[in-house]
């Protein structure tokens, strides 16, 4: 069993749930994270004697020589974690979600790491004509986020890495309470709107299928993989989720509403283009081969999120800390330079993240306006040089 584990993105939505579980299981854990949202997500374990925290940029691994030495396993969660963040910075998405992933795996193999577990996404199935997809199904990624996940999977499995097993976990869309809470994930967003607005908004037509898995169950899946025989996980892909939590988005909205009967919530389908992404996923492989079963109850989790909002445990739900792209826009407004997302942690995109695309547009327009203003303030020869460089 691998006892020394590096978790990239360990202060993210999934990472901040996984790390305490690993510590509880007796692992020595090193977290590598850019800490855009600070150390607070790890506050409960920050002083744990078996936890080491490295603040670092996943695209600058050369600045942290030696951090992989002595590691038994790497759980690679760090990524731009949804479509809006990838769309905002496509060139950086290539560096973070693809190039940094393959470079980390190469370095891990050279350092003698025995297991490399990669957090991919069920979004790689994309616009899929099959009624149900499994690990052998053809991939039809639609978004840049999904395309880079699929490309990274292929590159990792082609990597010459003798002595290091490589595993890809295709994650269902996450939900549930986390120390690094997010409200740009479908179920969490629906519950937040139900509590704060007494309304749930269905985007993308509502007919599209999506799989879901509680963040605590997802964390347990990684521990299961750490403890599984190498022959069962080497060069293997697993869908991570539950057959029972495949939902069409329109139906999911009513599940959330019915779980909160005292709130008198309305469900509204917002006029919108149909979401081309639709995939209903089979999760039998991970159950049969690794013995993993998702255990968290969706209805109970909906109630838990709602109570955390109602009792003030989570604070102001409109705070930008709950929305990656909104935090970017906030940083841009405060004059901290161009919006740039660090590699925090994989939190698979939710089907309602189209609602955040307006923030992406506002950030891009603001950046363009700032660049124009800077040109006007500079001497003419500097302005001409900048325009030439831009071409």
The fold-level CATH name of the largest domain is Rossmann fold
* Architecture per CATH nomenclature, i.e. the level-2 architecture of the largest domain: 3-Layer(aba) Sandwich
Overall spatial form? globular
Low-confidence stretches: 336-364, 374-391
According to CATH, what is the class of the largest domain?
Alpha Beta
CATH homologous superfamily classification of the largest domain: NAD(P)-binding Rossmann-like Domain
Order of helices and strands: EHEEEHHEHEEHEEHHEEHEHHHHH
Helix/strand-derived class? alpha/beta
Task: Please count the beta strands (DSSP E, at least 2 residues each).
Answer: 12
Residue-averaged pLDDT, rounded?
A: 85
Helical content stands at 25-40%
Strand content: 15-25%
- Tell me the count of domains: 2
The main sheet comes to: 7 strands, parallel
For the largest beta sheet, what order do the strands appear in spatially?
A: 3-2-1-4-5-6-10
What's the N-to-C terminus distance? 54 Å
Number of helices: 13
CA-atom Rg in angstroms? 21 Å
What's the short story on this structure?
The protein has 391 residues and is of the alpha/beta class. The protein has 13 helices and twelve strands. It has two domains: 349 residues, NAD(P)-binding Rossmann-like Domain (Rossmann fold), CATH 3.40.50.720; 32 residues.
